[in-house]
Write a structure and sequence with these properties.
about 325 residues; alpha/beta; Rossmann fold; six-stranded parallel beta sheet; 12 helices; 14 strands; about 40% helix; globular
Length: about 325
């Protein structure tokens, strides 16, 4: 839908949201992005330009002399995956790739969020000498939750939280299928997207209304409460489009383990230490997912112990202060 440009402040950061006419191939169409960028480059005069990809709007930097005069760092969140599920992604990538590679050739450094993603990335294969692994991170203490949100209604059984856009690569249909095979379980699926009606129909067809609830979109504060209330997180994604899984960090911060899939090349199975901070199951496999959830349901002490280890791993590897220092050191190395 159409959206006008707007400016806001997040802490000391000035945020300019360029207006959008809508999306094509999952990408916002923003005719004003280039002019906003050109003005900010002139006003702010940065020492480094930090670009987040995938993002076709970032290609505008190649057309601006102000941008070409400073070094670029690319934060590589994900490849544009040639999807086996959605042909539109594969089609769009044919036009995207030449510009993506031109940007990689021109940049000074590339930040990749996990070792497995770097090793398996075809677009980055020719640029590994520029690549540095710096994981994503977050603050160790979230905002305090507000008044109670309608969450888990029944304390009986395993309380599973799933969070994400209801889209093709998230694999939520496998989690719904797994619910049918687990004795005592309650799944709360938070998010919205194009597959909502399809997933709701699946829940009704299999008569799982008592086990699975679609909660829609919730605020960050409401999510904090649900991470505190749940027993574990489940992220059953089925493609490398799920490059890292920030929700795994949110769960770990709350001392909760995660059940994730072994999507080849994804960072999920690196963020989660199998059988220590969670469980890694085969991708797109309802029975194995159900087996893992059943294990946690019957062994609540194991679930709690994994949660303790998840928090320790979070404190060791993913606190935002440590991530900030790694990025700052990379900037310093470029500017020396």
């Amino acid at each position: 839908s159409n959206r006008a440009s707007e400016t806001s402040h997040v802490g000391k950061v000035n945020v300019i949201r360029a207006g959008s006419l809508g999306t094509v191939f999952f990408t916002p169409v923003s005719p004003t992005f280039r002019s906003h960028l050109k003005k900010q480059l002139a006003d702010f005069q940065p020492d480094i330009l930090h670009l987040h990809l995938p993002n076709p709007s970032a290609f505008w930097v190649m057309t601006l002399a102000e941008a070409r005069s400073v070094p670029w760092v690319i934060h590589w969140h994900a490849d544009v995956v040639s999807s086996q599920i959605d042909w539109r992604v594969k089609t769009a990538y044919r036009f995207y790739r030449p510009m993506e590679q031109a940007l990689l050739k021109r940049c000074r450094r590339v930040i990749v969020t996990s070792p497995p993603y770097l090793e398996s990335s075809r677009p980055l294969a020719g640029w590994k000498s520029k690549c540095h692994v710096i994981p994503l991170g977050m603050s160790s203490s979230p905002q305090a939750p507000p008044d109670a949100v309608r969450g888990f209604q029944n304390a009986d059984g395993l309380k599973v939280l799933a969070v994400g856009r209801l889209t093709y690569y998230k694999g939520f249909e496998y989690l719904i299928g797994a619910a049918e095979l687990v004795d005592k379980i309650q799944i709360l699926l938070v998010g919205d997207g194009e597959k909502r009606k399809e997933l709701q129909q699946l829940i009704q067809t299999r008569r799982l209304e008592e086990k699975v609830h679609l909660a829609g979109k919730l605020s960050d504060e409401q999510l904090v409460q649900l991470f505190n209330d749940c027993d574990c997180l489940c992220l059953p994604s089925i493609e490398r489009t799920e490059a890292f899984g920030m929700v795994i960090l949110e769960a770990a911060r709350a001392g909760k383990p995660a059940v994730v899939t072994d999507v080849p090349g994804s960072g999920m199975s690196w963020v989660v230490e199998n059988n220590k901070t969670g469980i890694v199951v085969p991708c797109a496999n309802t029975k194995e997912l159900a087996k893992a959830l059943q294990h946690l349901s019957r062994q609540k002490s194991v679930c709690s112990e994994m949660g303790v280890h998840a928090r320790k791993r979070f404190d060791t590897m993913f606190r935002i202060e440590a991530i900030e220092k790694q990025v700052s050191d990379l900037y310093s190395d470029i500017l020396l």
